[in-house]
Write a structure and sequence with these properties.
single chain, alpha/beta, Leucine-rich repeat, LRR (right-handed beta-alpha superhelix), 20 helices, 41% helix, 15% strand, globular, F-box domain-containing protein, LRR_dom_sf
């Protein structure tokens, strides 16, 4: 029975893996809970954002404790301060649970031992050796800003050949990636921050040797493009094309795309037929190019600067599996005479082709026909959990009374037809609700803890605050925040 209880607890705590607060609280319940939680926490001890690692002496102490006595003596002779921990202090062999290394956080905590650059270099080296020796296998590695060729350490071949996820940046010399490519050929998730725009053929080689690459992210993050000598993305894109049979998650943000890369990227996207997630910027594409993109397995579409027509086309060509459509609409910033009709088409495409949709961005003008189609969408998309709503009338200057009337129309549609799963609504820009309309809406929402985000500071007024606090106390409102339009529109990013 005790084994069954521990197994059951383990399954429960695994579901809380990303909830550091609950896991740390669970450590204090009893010995059984502690023994069950510690291995989960130490799989990836670097990922708990609630911890201030700069002051986390315990983490430094636990890692340093595992160093051999002769290494400790050597480090102390160099003037490095190591904690004095008796052999009875540690209840677990913590590093035996660890499956990850995060270079940035290790670099932060070693400052506890010394502020001198050379001493920190020594500590880094000994810590990396220790992880290579003590961790049974490594699944996740974050090597941004690394200074040590860890693949030359003893046991590195055995530890790194099981690597599933790698996060890195292009400041690392290309030869470093050659070293990794020799060992790490089973990476499924590869995340690259491009901070040096010069060609890095080591990255290309690392992509090439992967046997089961499923998840790829590329983020440009540099100020100048003058370093480019060749097509900066050509070789990377061509290697990704070869992974079309395994790649299902693609997140790409390029800062510099010339005509060649534009054409190449569009051609390769048409071949990545197994994508389930597509996150990118479509400002470089035209509607005819987007119409050629067919993703029958697509579940997440998250695009910056896409037109309504382009979004409608991708949705129509998806296989009915879309769960998240999170878009930054180009039409909203570039007034188009066809906006009214295009937004109607978009709404209809969503409710006809996305029966599983959970997260959705919508933009439409405040007209009767658009309100009706919005309500049809609510009725047909019963899995909806979160909505970002953008409404604007580009051609008519509306009175304050009309804006309040439009707001009431939206709230009434939500009252009549919103699915029971809906838990978050983000109102962008032109939404205003009278005190009475908002109160009527919240009265009808009892039994659900709703999160509302708005960019209008009117709701920070005393009368609105009083009403909102009342429904917070009643459990109707989980959260009600006034955010910048930028934060509202970053929905899901």
């Amino acid at each position: 029975m005790s084994k069954l209880n521990k197994d059951t607890l383990f399954l429960i705590f695994e579901e809380l893996e990303d909830d550091s607060k609950s896991l740390f609280s669970s450590l204090m319940v009893n010995k059984l809970w502690c023994e069950t939680v510690v291995p989960i926490l130490w799989r990836n001890p670097w990922c708990y954002h609630g911890i201030n690692y700069n002051n986390k002496n315990y983490l430094f102490s636990i890692i340093a404790f595992h160093l051999s006595d002769d290494i400790k003596e050597f480090l102390i002779r160099q003037g490095i301060q190591l904690p004095s921990i008796s052999s009875k202090t540690l209840s677990f062999n913590y590093l035996s649970f660890c499956r990850s290394i995060n270079i940035d956080i290790i670099n932060e905590i070693i400052s506890i031992g010394s502020s001198l650059a050379y001493n920190q270099f020594l500590l880094q080296q000994e810590f990396y050796k220790l992880f290579m020796k003590k961790c049974p296998e490594l699944k996740y590695l974050d090597i941004k800003s690394i200074n040590h060729q860890i693949f030359y350490f003893p046991e590195a071949n055995v530890r790194l050949e099981s690597l599933c996820e790698l996060e890195c940046d292009t400041s690392i010399d290309f030869s470093y990636f050659y070293g990794l490519a020799r060992i790490c050929q089973c990476i499924q998730r590869l995340i690259i921050f491009n901070i040096d725009p010069r060609d890095n053929y080591g990255i290309v080689k690392l992509i090439e040797v992967q046997k089961n690459l499923k998840y790829f992210e590329w983020h440009d993050n540099f100020d100048h493009i003058g370093y480019f000598t060749n097509d900066p993305y050509k070789e990377v894109l061509l290697e990704l094309e070869k992974k079309a049979n395994t790649l299902n998650h693609l997140k790409i943000f390029f800062q510099y795309v010339d005509d060649f890369e534009h054409t190449l990227l569009q051609e390769i996207l048409t071949k990545l037929h197994k994508l389930k997630t597509l996150i990118s910027d479509f400002s470089i594409f035209g509607e005819q190019e987007v119409k050629m993109l067919v993703f029958n397995d697509l579940e997440i579409l998250n695009i910056n600067y896409i037109t309504l027509n382009e979004a409608s086309s991708i949705i129509e060509n998806s296989g009915g599996h879309l769960k998240k459509v999170l878009l930054k609409f180009y039409d909203h910033y570039n007034f188009d005479n066809d906006f009214d009709e295009n937004s109607l088409i978009y709404i209809r495409k969503v409710y006809k082709n996305c029966p599983l949709i959970e997260y959705l961005s919508l933009t439409f003008p405040p007209s009767k026909i658009h309100f009706n189609e919005f309500e049809n969408l609510l009725k047909n998309c019963q899995n909806l959990k979160s909505l970002l709503l953008i409404t604007s009338n580009f051609y008519v200057h509306e009175t304050e009374e009309k804006i309040l009337e439009n707001g009431e129309e939206i709230l009434n549609a939500l009252i009549r037809s919103a699915p029971t799963n809906l838990k978050e609504i983000r109102f962008f820009n032109d939404f205003k609700f009278s005190l009475k309309a908002l109160e009527d809406f919240l009265e009808c929402w009892k039994g659900c803890a709703l999160t509302i985000l708005t960019s209008d500071i009117v709701y920070e007024g005393e009368s609105y605050k009083k009403l909102i606090n009342k429904y917070k106390n009643d459990g109707v409102i989980k959260d009600f925040r006034c955010e910048s339009t930028t934060n509202i529109e970053k929905y899901g990013l």
